Amino acid sequence: MNELRRRSRLRYNVCVTDVNVVREFGGLFGSHNRPAIGRGFPPPGGSTHRIREPGAIFVIFPGLSNSKDELKMRLLNTIPERGLMDFLKNSFLLLGSAALIFSGGCADSSTTPGLPQTTSTETDGAGHSTTNEAVQNSEAVTASTVKEETDVVSFLPGPDAQKKILEELILAEAGTIFQFEEGTFEFTDGLSLTVDNVTIRGRGMDKTILSFKNQEAGAEGLYITSDNVVVEDIAIEDTKGNAIKSLKADNILYRNVRTEWSGGPLSTNGAYGLYPVSSRNVTVDGCVAIGASDAGIYVGQSINVVVKNCRAEYNVAGIEIENCHEAEVFGCEATNNTGGILVFDLPDLPQQNGHNVRIYRNQIHGNNTANFAPEGNIVGTVPAGTGVQIMANSHVEVFENDILNHGTSNILIVSYLATGKDIKDPNYYPYAEAIHVHHNKFSAGGDKPDNDGGRLMAAILGTPLPDIIWDGVVNEEKRVDGALPVEAGISIHDNSKEDGEVTFGNLGGLPSLVDPGNARPTRDLEPHREPLPSVGPVE
Amino acid sequence: MSHTAALKSEASPALSRKRDRCLHAGCKACLVVLLIASPAESAIVNIDVEAEPAQLLSSYNLFRDARRQIPNEGVIAYDLNTPHFADYATLHRFVWMPDGRSCNYGPHGEIDFPVGSVLVITMGYQTDLRDPLLGEHIVETRLWMRRADKWIGAQYAWNKETTEAKLAVAGEKTEVSWIHHNGRKHHHTFRIPNRNQCAQCHEIGDKLVPLGPVHAQYLNKDYDYDDGTLNQLERWARAGYLTGLPNDRDEIPRMAVWNDPSTGDLNSRARAYLDMNCSNCHRKGGIGFTSGLDLRYDQREPVKFGIFKSPVAAGRGAGNGRFVIEPGHPERSIMLFRLNSTDPGIRMPVVGRSLAHKEGVALITRWITQMNYPQLDQRQRKVDRRSSLQRNKTAIMPGQGQR
């Protein structure tokens, strides 16, 4: 092992930053000639990717201007080379750690010119290389001062790569960065990670590809069960099961990751692309998910979830938030799935009662791919041509999305009772409540209702189906003098349509579902115009 | 080294028979093997569980003869009522404890292992499953070591000659073959799981735990030792490895043996099989609990152990089944679909098996076929009638609804 692993003594990933970065550290302000230092893992949801090296010490050098060149100059002028070394030494003594990373939020995270840094890469000729991003002339800071180090272990594709990668991941130490170099890595076995504070990094989602076409073992391509992990700039292709699953993995960040089944939408594809479950603080940023036979991006039973700037296509469900508390999906594109974005809650699970979910500023269009999920799956019930479907959650806000061109419905709001499934869980709450739909843009659709559910709705409401469909199933116990408070129902206002008026249909509640022949649907939106308060952002 | 000493050591019945044959054939061959396999006659078992696992298994001196899995002094062979399925490998289990340490028998039959304990499990492939005397290809030995704060595991891969086993952190693949019960020759790539895969089965909460021997119900059975047949717990107690056994031995719980009808009815045997093979993940705190499925033997609530339970995130693992178990319909039950599959994206358990266990599948099939839950059945039928009513109505009048 030790011969294989050559550690970098120090890694100075120096980059200047701006005021916005500092703000996200919540009070770690330094003055322009005294940088602040901090350590840890910033909360998800921020915009400063580059400072998320887990477990690292961050040196924040706030500038007063957004001009990066000016900030660089200021940094260099304030801490000359000699002074920098002293400063680093003091930092080690102060914080008892050597993992020191200068970081910032600027796009060019490369070295600041003029600062001492060299990068050298050695390869042992067997698919394994080590990167040494060390300050060569920094003998003042040596291993003796250093209690723990940030490893950068890099991998090259090759016949021996699998065994080495498996072994390195298993024996990883906290703080390690695994750098997968450009190329296609072939695996027959699933990878797994159980160590905290680790980064798995490629050279770009189209450049570093982990292919599991010939997978023989492992239910996932990559399986993560540790906290503070970053997976970024990498692609996982053609796994037999899920592409990446993370279970009870808090503070996980997926960034610029692509998961794909290259044969197109097939029921033999794995279930999920990105599959974080039972975790706190999940961020999925800039990822692409293609071809999953269940959901491209699926976050289940988690708390504090942000999915942003992602693209999901040719999955059964593009993006699915299931049994989650405090979640948001924004800036994403969901197209050519069976259903674009789903917000579900299911019974018989350790965490249920999904609530406080925001779906906003997404492009959700043309999700008309025939449902190819295996029959028993809950997403197998989603009709092709569904833009957004909300089931059995409460306090869901859907706003400022473009939801266009869907054969069944742009937005479908249902209780679990509409699935026709029996509920045996006494703790389960099956109703969709406080659903707030506003300022979305629609286009005409509803002309091709799909599956039993779609045909049932068509039988009750006629075709084309309206833009927004609600099953009308409510908790009768919540009525006050016969009237339903808006918190127990739905609120719909200020939506618009390219080519006409926004249409709405209420299927008429449980009696209509049980006996569609005598259904009493309504198309009147008037009772639902009262706005609900906004759902707050994920902290 | 005398034969008496060899005979005193603990070994499985098959192995002691083998040794008998060895004795009949004359002493020399046996003696030579023993001497080769144990370089120092006086070597005693020596394991510091707090240290990192050794690179070479031989440094622990666990075996007098590894090829025939004859353990060293103080290492006791044992067995489980209902072991887990490991691709038709033969499993040899042993326990060792440092001097003066012993397990304690807990109020519900929990076996609490003292710090320093080591559990050993060796996987081997018999040349012919019908005749253990024809020899065995020893493939892997796994150790469980009880540290002060936790259990840790280590896996060792044996060389072809069974003279040394090396630590195999990343797992390994070994080609094996054997003649099956039905006389057919089988070839198989046996996979030594990697360290993280071990954790997938053995992690409950944040801790690693061994599967069977931590509960008396799996150990409570007779074993054919060299000096006669004895209850295993009794044997452990006599060796000083176990204290606190109830005076009334009938109080000790006993798990049914999955393939022995004399030990329990079909239900207990099927539940024992699921408890051993599935419940370490499918229980509260286990990695398979995200689906809410709980396959522990003691789980009595039908939907919790799968009856009419809908799948959650099974993906194509659900096949076309609607429920984990549909009573009376093994062919529609997801549990059987996954037990039967060898596809890595479908099969259950996800690690530790890549072949289907035909005999285990047959047991679960019989169990589901004979299963009877009239009330739940009736309820589900009602729900189904309602949905099919919907379907029929919609089929009759497509697109003729109110506008």
Write the layout of secondary structure elements.
The complex is a heterodimer of chains A (539) and B (403).
Chain A: H1 19-24, E1 36-39, E2 57-60, H2 68-78, H3 81-95, E3 100-102, E4 120-123, E5 128-132, E6 152-155, H4 161-170, E7 177-180, E8 183-186, E9 189-193, E10 199-201, E11 208-211, E12 217-224, E13 230-237, E14 242-247, E15 252-260, E16 272-277, E17 280-285, E18 288-290, E19 295-300, E20 303-308, E21 311-313, E22 317-322, E23 325-330, E24 333-335, E25 339-344, E26 355-360, E27 363-365, E28 386-391, E29 394-399, E30 402-404, E31 409-414, E32 433-438, E33 441-442, H5 451-461, E34 468-470, E35 490-493, E36 496-497, E37 504-506, H6 510-514
Chain B: H1 3-8, H2 13-25, H3 27-37, E1 63-65, E2 70-71, E3 76-78, E4 90-96, E5 103-105, E6 111-112, E7 118-126, E8 136-146, E9 151-158, E10 165-167, E11 172-179, E12 185-192, H4 195-202, E13 203-204, E14 207-208, H5 216-219, E15 222-225, E16 228-231, H6 232-238, E17 242-243, H7 266-278, H8 334-340, H9 358-370, H10 374-396
Parallel strand pairs in B: 5-17
Antiparallel strand pairs in B: 1-2, 3-4, 4-7, 5-6, 7-8, 8-9, 9-10, 11-12, 13-14, 15-16
Helix pairs in contact in B: 7-9
